[in-house]
């Protein structure tokens, strides 16, 4: 099933230059699109792909309208990437298959849990005593929501997500470890999406909190008592250690690590593979990693780094002599 260009613009707005009756059979990136596809261009660094693209129509911003018209049909939108996102939503709604049952028969739901009648629970999910699942939230297969954890409305949890496993808390005792019981829970707001096999630990005493609109990729670890502010997003394999606080509208790139008890202000963007070792009080883009290099050169540079502190002290001593 497809959609006509006219029906897309009627549903989503935008300025169409082309035949409204032209049928679109799929969505594709510029370089792979054929004469049956709708594509988009939102970043000027891909401008060279526009002229060569075989797409039936391309979504572009106003500044690219003239170039797009030289190539062929286009839809002009002030925010082409956002427009494309909404096209994907429209496409999914228009081509939806029959929905599975609201409760898969293999799901295990404790009688003392509350699952909203409009929530959708997939195969082999486990919802423990006291857990609460809000309206229009969907749990894909094998999701576990542990005791007393709360998930808000319109959330999407992908396969293998674990909400509310014990936080990592142990006290040393004569060379061994004594478990600290994790007595808090996890509270997740509305419109949160959590990727496959991501784990969010329950709090030790207070709850771990994920606020409204947060987006988490696959294979993320959120430690106990962490708080993640509204509309923040984290890419795959991020690790956030216990009691860290992430502000609102933050982004954290793939493989980055935030150490425990640190605070990131609203609007902080962390590059991939960065290790955050101190609190960040001002919004901005932060990066911290040792660039990849030939191994022999990397070892020489790493050895030089160990001498920086001593070199700094020697330079300060020389500066003091020059001032004298």
Structure, explained:
With 324 residues, this protein is of the alpha/beta class. The protein folds into three domains: 3-94, MurE/MurF, N-terminal domain (Udp-n-acetylmuramoylalanyl-d-glutamate--2,6- Diaminopimelate Ligase, Chain: A, domain 1, 3-Layer(aba) Sandwich); 108-286, Hexapeptide repeat proteins (UDP N-Acetylglucosamine Acyltransferase, domain 1, 3 Solenoid), CATH 2.160.10; 295-324. Helices cover 19% and strands 27% of the residues. The strands form six sheets. The chain has a nine-stranded parallel beta sheet with strand order 8-11-14-17-22-25-28-31-34, with no helix packed on it. A nine-stranded parallel beta sheet has the order 10-13-16-21-24-27-30-33-35, with no helix packed on it. The model has no long low-confidence stretch (mean pLDDT 96).
Q: Which labels suit this protein?
A:
324 residues, alpha/beta, Udp-n-acetylmuramoylalanyl-d-glutamate--2,6- Diaminopimelate Ligase, Chain: A, domain 1, UDP N-Acetylglucosamine Acyltransferase, domain 1, 3 domains, 9-stranded parallel β-sheet, 35 strands
Side by side, the strands of the main sheet go: 8-11-14-17-22-25-28-31-34
CA-CA gap between termini:
82 Å
CATH topology (level 3) name of the largest domain: UDP N-Acetylglucosamine Acyltransferase, domain 1
- The helix fraction, in percent, is 10-25%
CATH H-level name of the largest domain... which superfamily? Hexapeptide repeat proteins
- Note the main sheet: 9 strands, parallel
User: Which word captures the global form?
Assistant: flat
* Global Rg: 25 Å
Strand % is 25-35%
The strand count comes to 35
Tally of helical runs? 6
What's the level 1 CATH class of the largest domain? Answer: Mainly Beta
Helix-strand category: alpha/beta
Low-confidence stretches: none
- What's the overall average pLDDT, rounded? 96
CATH architecture of the largest domain: 3 Solenoid
Number of domains: 3
